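2024-03-11 09:14:02 DEBUG pipeline.ingest accepted 1 chain
2024-03-11 09:14:02 DEBUG pipeline.ingest length=201
2024-03-11 09:14:03 DEBUG pipeline.predict start
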Amino acid sequence: MKKGMLIGLGIVFILIIMVGGCVIGPYNTMVTKDEAVKEKWSQVENVYQRRLDLIPNLVNTVKGYATHEKETFTAVTEARAKAGGTMNISGKTLSDPATFQKFQQAQSSLGGALSRLMVVMEKYPELKANENFLKLQDELSGTENRIAVERKRFNEVAKDFNVYIRKFPKNMIANIFGFKQRPYFTATEGANIAPKVDFSK
């Protein structure tokens, strides 16, 4: 009787260890992958913040040469304010596609306003020769490249995380512990159409 009970307890103990191993390993991997997504997201925020920080200097430099382009300056300033209001998205919000979309739209709007500002620059040859402006333009160009790189890296780790938590039986563990898919950055609508620039005006 005692021997049978010990065998039964041993079997129960082995089953607990096996089930625990089947849950603990995937759970820990999910945590690691989730943290990788958050780390890449913080890099995305860093490069977007760098762009936000460059804009006031850029606008002020252009204003010195193109004082009557008030509509463009207002558009850039407003877009910067909106984009700045969507920064510092938390890990919880990161898993909310609607908020993520709002962030992406605000950043795309700012990118469009900056493109219009660069078009204004083409009208002013003396501005194009300004050393301070050229330096700011180079910094902005470098920042835009970094944004593209960091968005790509974010999408890669988000995909890795999403695929992992969607596979069976890990999807059940993900549901139990509340791991949700991460949204991806997508191209802005109309990004595949080259902008028309008219320098005759």
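2024-03-11 09:14:41 DEBUG pipeline.report Confidence is low (pLDDT under 50) at residues 191-201.
2024-03-11 09:14:41 DEBUG pipeline.predict end
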